[in-house]
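Lab channel / #folding
Pinned by the channel admin:
"Please post every new chain as: sequence first, then the structure tokens as a reply. Keep commentary short and put observations after the output so the thread stays searchable."

First post following the new format, from NK:
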Amino acid sequence: MNMVLPFCLRWPSAPWLRRAVQFGALTAFLVLLVVARRGGAPPSLANLPMRLDPLTALAHALAARILLPASALALLTLALTLLLGRAWCGWLCPLGTLLDLVPSSRPTTRPVLPETWRRVKHFLWLALVIAALLGNLTLLVLDPLTLLIRTFGAALWPALERIVTATEVAAYTLPPLRPVVGELDRLLRPAVFPVEAPPYRTPVLYALTLTAVLSLNALAPRFWCRYLCPLGGLLGVVSKVALVRREVTSACTRCGACARVCPTGTIHPDRDFASDPAECTMCLECLEACPYDAIRFPVRPTLASWETYDPNRRTALTALGVAVAGVALFRSSRATRVPLIRPPGARENDLEAKCIRCGLCVRSCPTGAIQPALLEGGLESLWTPVVIPRLGYCDYSCNACGQVCPVEAIPPLSLEEKRRAVLGRAYVDRNRCIPWADHRPCIVCEEMCPVPEKAIILEEVTVADAAGQPVTVQRPHVVEKRCIGCGICEYKCPVSGEAAIRVFGIAVDERR
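Reply from TO:
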């Protein structure tokens, strides 16, 4: 059956329409990231891109053993794929759009790797799904949306903020520019940039990861999409039964123009310039390049042929073996791990089996307390959210992280519930505390403690100072049953270096 293609793809301007949609989607994605903070866009809007991702929705459902109503939006992406193939990759994916902006010096008709290397992305998504069945979501760090959000929130946006701040400071030294700088700063803060920029750990790591993905374009256009993207691999399998697919008519003169512009290199001159629907991103570049109008996109409800690089039994068994071995290796270090400080409610919520590593909680935290985990919790915790009190504290009046989390790995607690959630416990290091060690007055930690019934109390004692003279100081003590581990005492502690009062994580099974 050869039905008529949807009218929008028969227009001569269809490639331009695709580019407009691409840049519109990228702009919307970036705007949502800018406003994904407390007081910004509604959380259900800020986390919309992640809820459209079928790979994270599938992996989370398998690992958490739960189907969230909010994840149903991923069905829209699957429906689009069943209709138009990998149109998500060619029209909507923000990382795909960035890859199209990065030039490639290699011709698309000369493969940089054997065609069988396209199987790598299938191996990755299969290993990811199998690991999710075993309760591990570490491989979601390779999902294109999580990769972009982490990099934007912890590296690119903070870097831009510092550039803007440095420019404002330099311009303010010129008296004629001061009114303009002042007005500009009032417009930008806190609407766009924070009044006080929070620090982030190893932002270079996140920037280098994205740079590496983009730099692979030097080897081949959309190298990431061809060989590595696990989301693209999953959508490619679904695209085998897509209704709309590319075909070449008898008007073709074998000029090769279409193969030369195909960004994924899936047009084969030795097959009469046919293409694989699983690799075609519906970018329409071939439609624009064909001088003889020999390319059509009819509706054909048939199963596309299976290629040598498509997932097979060996791929599935290899992914199974690697996933099982990897999960076992990651979990072997659990007994020796120090409990991490998690966002409110996440400690009791089996965070590692639910977190999709998107980094939206990092982006939404107004104080910078939430950071992506590195190796302090082992590979199983890689890039899950941890609270680092010396970098920021959990604001007593904020519950943004739980509201913005697209999969409820951080539960959406009300503000009252969040204020009762225990993150950790504070302990005073008497060898570093100013009143304890130096016999000098300091009550910062007690003053900063936000709980109504103070978790830090002061004991007034008279001691001898360094000169041997009696001096009265107030020594802090932590009342464990009142402490929620928000970390503001550690953050505000005036002792240089490691704070004299520190918050430590507590095990899930500990009871107050």
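NK: Residues 1-5 have pLDDT under 50 and may be disordered.
TO: also worth noting, Residues 422-505 form a domain with the Alpha-Beta Plaits fold (CATH 3.30.70.20).
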